[in-house]
Design brief:
Layout: H1 5-10, H2 15-22, H3 29-38, H4 42-52, H5 55-76, H6 82-110
Helix pairs in contact: 5-6
Length: 115
């Protein structure tokens, strides 16, 4: 897949990022993300990734990111458990949602229907 200037503008990318993409020879996701990492544009990569994901994968990405930094936050703010609770709640909600969907599918099959 390719990341077009049109897509960037649609999502409200900054002018600097749009111009940077225009200057790239290869605009495939892989090439652009590799270039972002090499050129220290981690913020740009992190900005566009959730905008290209569907809702379910945005939630997964957010949980993954929170799990990576929660220890840093807890070390800096040992008396503030809010961030940890938020990360755990998001992970719990995703797991619960999948479990409920699975249970719903079982129930419908049990009743002779098609989920």
């Amino acid at each position: 897949m390719k990341l077009t200037v049109r897509t960037l503008k649609k999502h409200g990318a900054c002018v600097e990022a749009v111009e940077w993409v225009r200057g790239q020879k290869d605009i495939s996701y892989k090439a652009l993300f590799t270039a972002c990492l090499a050129e220290d544009h981690l913020d740009w990569a992190n900005w566009i990734i959730p905008r290209l994901l569907n809702k379910e994968n945005r939630i997964r990405y957010a949980i993954y990111a929170a799990e990576r930094v929660i220890k840093i936050y807890e070390d800096k703010y040992p008396d503030d458990a809010y961030a940890a609770y938020a990360a755990y709640a998001a992970a719990y909600k995703e797991t619960l949602t999948k479990t409920l969907k699975y249970g719903y599918g079982l129930l419908i099959k049990q009743e002779g229907g098609t989920p």
